[in-house]
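Anyone up for a design puzzle?
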């Protein structure tokens, strides 16, 4: 098969973060500061990415503003010709730093929203005062005219606030709202009972998003990620393994998706050991699940195989025990009963379920 070049790259600059969100998709085993790539190595990775064909760079974490060299990294990415999107909680973005980021050409900010008021947001983020600081940062971003997306990770504890979340996105001047219902990878899997929405919340969310999308056309664009445990068909994770995007984690390992390290038989190359071009085109990890030939007959004979590519490899491993299986979210999957069982278990344990907060790496 012909492998196209990647379009987007996610650079997890650090796993450090002042927040402790229980829905975090970072791995449970977080990497500490001492294993992070230095500025020059990241800059070289951005240059290699651009030469490979990447157009968009997502600067992420953890909290990317925890890196003192964030402005230098953004400058390096812009000089490489990449469109730069900063994915941030806003904590650590002072007006002076925002000035500097604007001066080096930061293209876009994606600001997370944990809740619509301080009590809720600070409880979910595990960071007192975080909501107030985030609102101040949103205003600073707006004042500078930097395009803003609000990224609302939604779950059982905040989905009933969706109407207010949409209002806030408009008030804060966001051009786009991501209604991103929690996906269960990394830390989020430890919090399934506390976070999994009810079926009623899920149905109400679909209705509200559709209504708001029609009402706010031309004002606010929506990206909606539904809670996939309630879906009939899986999501097209990463647009297909090794087809459109790649991730580099803080220590330089290059992954086909953010949870790929949960697939134990795959070995991942580091950007410090092998050119990015070779890793993308030739590495066994990137070639492991490219295309659809590896999928079972359930997928290969399905008319949706070109839409969802059999779903998420990491979810197939986590729930069905086989990364090459049909994503068990699919109603045609022979393992679909496992998703139903997870739903039943989460609903049974939901009342009084406490958060397991993400802990800070060293
Ligand atoms: Fe790894 Fe979906 S998160 S393929």
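Challenge accepted. My sequence:
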């Amino acid at each position: 098969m012909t492998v196209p070049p990647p379009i987007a790259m996610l650079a997890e600059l650090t796993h450090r973060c002042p927040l402790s969100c229980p829905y975090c998709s970072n791995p449970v085993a977080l990497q500490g500061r001492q294993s992070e790539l230095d500025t020059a190595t990241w800059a070289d990775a951005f240059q290699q990415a651009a030469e490979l064909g990447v157009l968009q760079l997502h600067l992420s974490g953890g909290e990317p503003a925890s890196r003192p060299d964030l402005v230098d990294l953004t400058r390096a990415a812009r000089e490489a010709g990449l469109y730069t999107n900063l994915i941030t909680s806003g904590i650590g973005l002072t007006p002076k730093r925002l000035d500097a980021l604007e001066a080096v050409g930061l293209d876009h900010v994606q600001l997370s929203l944990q809740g619509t008021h301080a009590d809720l947001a600070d409880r979910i983020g595990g960071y007192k005062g975080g909501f107030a600081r985030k609102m101040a940062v949103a205003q600073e971003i707006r004042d500078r005219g930097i395009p803003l997306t609000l990224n609302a990770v939604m779950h059982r504890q905040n989905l009933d606030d969706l109407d207010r979340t949409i209002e806030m996105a408009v008030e804060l001047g966001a051009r786009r709202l991501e209604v991103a219902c929690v996906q269960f990878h990394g830390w989020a899997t430890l919090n399934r009972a506390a976070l999994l929405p009810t079926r009623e919340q899920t149905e109400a969310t679909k209705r509200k998003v559709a209504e708001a999308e029609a009402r706010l056309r031309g004002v606010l664009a929506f990206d909606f990620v539904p809670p996939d445990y309630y879906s009939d068909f899986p999501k097209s994770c990463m647009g297909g393994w090794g087809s459109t995007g790649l991730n580099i984690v803080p220590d330089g390992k290059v992954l086909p998706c953010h949870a790929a390290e949960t697939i134990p038989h795959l070995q991942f190359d580091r950007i410090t050991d092998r050119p990015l071009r070779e890793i993308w085109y030739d590495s066994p990890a990137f070639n492991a699940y490219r295309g659809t030939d590896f999928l079972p007959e359930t997928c290969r004979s399905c008319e949706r195989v070109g839409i969802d590519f059999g779903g998420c490899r990491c979810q197939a491993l986590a729930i069905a025990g086989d990364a090459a299986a049909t994503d068990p979210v699919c109603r045609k999957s022979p393992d679909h009963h496992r998703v139903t069982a997870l739903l039943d278990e989460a609903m049974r344990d939901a009342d009084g379920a406490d958060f397991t907060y993400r802990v800070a790496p060293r």
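A detail worth pointing out: The beta strands are 8-12, 56-60, 83-88, 108-113, 148-154, 176-181, 221-225, 245-248, 254-255.
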